[in-house]
Write a sequence for this structure.
């Protein structure tokens, strides 16, 4: 359950500075995604659809930005790439539930495909 304390602790940016990026990257990325989802769920219980969408999109775009950032450690880029499907699927469910049109989701999916192809961290 999300409490107001969790709302205050949410970091809008994924922290990629750590001593052991090869070991810590999966945990940091998964925790960032989970925190964003918890906030989105909290706002879903309230009649605040815009903030729910905001947190889902914020997680999605933060992962995309780290995939495309060459200064980010390779381990973090790979984890962002591997876990990008989580916010994308959450946004798909959100748009299916809230909107009659899936056009916003298709734009996000297309952007993810382009960025993932151009900045594939596995190359």
């Amino acid at each position: 359950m999300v409490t107001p304390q969790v709302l205050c602790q949410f970091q809008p940016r994924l922290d990629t500075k750590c001593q052991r990026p090869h070991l810590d990257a999966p945990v940091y990325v998964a925790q960032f995604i989970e925190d964003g989802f918890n906030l989105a769920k909290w706002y879903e219980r309230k009649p605040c659809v815009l903030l729910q969408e905001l947190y889902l999109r914020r997680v999605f775009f933060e992962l995309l930005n780290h995939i495309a950032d060459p200064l980010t450690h390779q381990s973090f880029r790979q984890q962002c790439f591997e876990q990008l499907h989580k916010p994308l699927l959450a946004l798909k469910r959100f748009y299916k539930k809230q909107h009659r049109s899936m056009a916003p989701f298709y734009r996000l999916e297309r952007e993810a495909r382009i960025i993932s192809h151009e900045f594939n961290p596995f190359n």
Observations:
- Residues 24-118 form one domain.
- Helices lie at 4-9, 21-45, 49-68, 74-82, 85-98, 103-118.
- The chain has a mean pLDDT of 85.
- DSSP finds six helices and no strands in the chain.
